[in-house]
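Q: Focus on the shape:
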Amino acid sequence: MPFDGVVPNKAVAKQTNLYAMMRAVFAFKPNETRRRSVPNRFQTVTSYDILQLADSLIDKPHNWVQRRYETSTGRRCAIGAIRAAYRTYCGYPGAVSALTDSKRILRHVILARYGFDGDIEKFNDTSSYRQVRQAFADAIAISG
């Protein structure tokens, strides 16, 4: 019994522990950047929004990875970043078509700039970090 004579409630203690565990599971990872701007719930999502958020998710070399979509530490490849951006906007109007358009625009930029006629995944795995970031910058400029 504590010093004040109050018997602790075990249900409250379990609830507090569950809350702490949920916060730890769903918290931002240390190397993950915060979302830039999330549009209004009634605003239509565009490919520009998805590409910009995806680019911000791999804004530093230690946030980018090859040969995997996403790691447990939050590192992502180009497609993994686009998918993570889509998950942020999932449920917003136009999110599905924006996802399709953003992949199409990025694939077009990769073909036009680097002459790489293949998957975005293969481009990510065979290119440097600088080339991937430049492809995102060009795709954002086209979509914006």
Q: What stands out?
A: The first helix runs from residue 10 to 26.
